[in-house]
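Researcher: Before we compare anything, I want clean individual predictions. No alignment, no superposition, just each chain on its own. First chain goes here; please echo the sequence and then give the structure tokens.
Model: Echoing the first chain and its structure:
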Amino acid sequence: MEFKLNELTGNNDVAVISHAVWTVDPDAKVNVDVSTMAVEIDSWLMPEEFLVAFEEAGYDVRIMRG
């Protein structure tokens, strides 16, 4: 699944986003591309289950691919 970030905070974004994803699925594989502001997650969960984690971490995202 892929998410598009609306903006980055600049405060160690990759680590913060990865941690937020792992709070939902500790086994998820996370790839954050700061240049395109895209986050790819390999998980068995539904994309919607990660939206709250992104929001709580301070990121506004939209689902690009489920």
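Researcher: Okay. Second chain, same rules.
Model: Second chain and its structure:
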Amino acid sequence: MNQLVTRLQAFHRDEDGVTAIEYGLIAALIAVVIIGTVQTVGTNLTAVFSFIGAELA
């Protein structure tokens, strides 16, 4: 029984899994921001090139 309590206490103190989850969430958030930025820039570039194409024609 004492060995079980010791292992449970060690598991409770172990923060490696928590750190990995935090890094995963940060990476996901960064990816979402990058995707949103690329989509916005892409939309703006499409509008700019369409305007330039219309002016040249």
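Researcher: What stands out in the second chain?
Model: The first helix runs from residue 2 to 13. Additionally, The helical segments are 2-13, 16-56.
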